[in-house]
Amino acid sequence: MSEPTPVRPLSRFQKWVIAFGLLSMGVGFTISFVVAPPLARSAGLTELQVAGILTISAALFAFMTPTWGKFANRFGRKRVMVFALFMTALTNTGFLLSLEAAMNGVVVGMHAFFLLMSARTLFGLLSSGLQPAAFSAMTDATTPHDRAAGLGFLGAAMSVGSILGPGAAAVLAKFGALAPLWGSIVFTVVCGLIILFSLPAETSDAKTQKPKPLELTDKRVRPYLIFLVSYFMAVACVQQTIAWFVSDRFGFEGAKAVENGGLVFAVMAVAMVLVQTFYVNRLKPDPHFMLPTGLVLVAIGYGTAIPHAPFVFLCMSFLVMGAGSALIVPSLNALGTLSVDAHEQGGAGALMAAAPPAGFVVGPLIGAGLYMVHNDLPLTISTIAMVVLFLTALTVLRRGRNKEVQTS
Predict the structure, then answer these.
(1) 8 Å CB contact between 271 and 319
(2) Do 122 and 91 form a contact (C-beta atoms < 8 A)?
(3) Across 31-170, where does the E strand assignment appear?
(4) CA nearest 144: which of 302, 298, 326, 349?
C-alpha cells in the first residue's frame, strides 16, 4: 500500500514561515492584553469598559474564525493569511491612535469608549483569518502520519508568541508607553510580507466541485471541538489570574511581581517547546496516547501549584503543565481533522482553530470572578476540569476505537 502524500506539500522553510506568522499573532494578543488595560484606564475608562472592549473583540474573533476558514477554502490559504496579518496591523494602528487620543484628552468619556470599541470590533471581524487559514494550510501539507506534529508545531508557535509578548512589552515600554503596540504592528507587517513572498501561489480551483463546508454541529468533529474549547476556558481562567496569584501568594510588588509572573510563563513556554520539538515532532506519538497523558500532566501541574510552597515549586508545577499542554493541543487538532474524510480535513482544521479564541471569550471573566472569591479557586476549578476532561477522553477515545474495529 502506497504512502499517502500531502494535498499541497510545503517545504520545511515554508512551514516555519506559517508558524512565524502565528507567533506574531500570539505576541500581538498578549501585548494588547498587557498594555491596553492600564493605559485605557489611565485615559478615563472604567475596568468594566476595558473588559467589555476586549471581550467583545474576542467574541467577534471567535465567531468569525469559522467563516474565515471557509473563505480560506474558497480564495486560498495564502491570501487569507496575508489579508489577516495586514488587517491586524491596520486595525491595531487604529486602536493605538485612538488610545493615544484618549490619553491626551482629545476624545474623552463615551466618545473614547466607542472609538476604541470600533477599532477592536474591526479587528475581530477582519483579522481572524490567520489561524484557520494557517491550520488548513498545514493540514494540506501533512499526511495522517505527521499531522499531529505539524498542527502541534503551529500551536506551539502561538503559545511561544503568547509567552514572548509580555517580555517584549516590558523591553519596549522603556521607549514609551505605546512602544510595545507599535512594535507588534511592525512585527505583524513583516510577517505578512514574508508569507506573501515565501509561500507558493495556490492554483485556482474555482471550477472544481467544492466539498460541503463543515458546520460547528458536525457530529464527527464536535467532541474534539468541545474538548478544545473547554480546555482553553480552563487555561484562560489561570492565565488571567496567575500574575495576581504570584503577587498575592509570595508578596511580590511592582516590577518584581511582573518579573516573577513572567518567569512562570517562561518556564511553561520552555517545557512546551522542548516537548513539542524533541518528542512530538521527532517521535510522532499516537494522538490517542497524547491526549489523556497531556490532561494528566496539566492536572498535576495545576494541582501542585495550589499548596503553599516556595516559588521554585510553583515554577516546577508550570513546567509540568507546559509539558502537558504541548501534548493536548496537537492531539486534539489531529483527532479532529482525522475524524473526517480527507477532502474535509481543511475545513475541520479551520473549525478546530476557532476553539482557542472561543475559550478566551469567557475564560478570563470566569477566572477573575473565581479569584475575587478566593485566590486558589481558578487553579482548583481548572484542576477539576482537567480531571473531568481526562475521564471523558477515555470514554470518547474508547468509543472511537470500537467504531474503527467495527468498520474494519
Answers:
(1) yes
(2) yes
(3) none
(4) 349
Whether residue 47 is predicted with pLDDT greater than 90 in this model: the reply is: no
Start-end of CATH 1.20.1250.20 domains in the chain: 8-199, 219-408
Q: What is the pTM of this model?
A: 0.71
Q: What CA–CA distance (Å, rounded) separates 59 from 86?
A: 20
Residues making up the chain, counted from first to last: 408
Architecture of domain 8-199: Up-down Bundle (1.20)
Q: In whole angstroms, what is the distance from residue 280 CA to residue 270 CA?
A: 14
Contacts of 281 (CB under 8 A, 6+ apart): 149, 152, 153
pLDDT for 208: 41
| pLDDT digits 0-9 by tens, 265-312 | 778 878 887 898 889 878 889 999 999 999 999 999 999 999 989 999
Reduce the DSSP state of residue 383 to 3 states and report it.
Answer: helix
> Taking a C-beta distance cutoff of 8 angstroms, is the pair 378, 367 a contact?
yes
Q: Does domain 219-408 have CATH number 1.20.1250.20?
A: yes
Which residue, 272, 278, 276, 277, is CA-closest to 321?
272
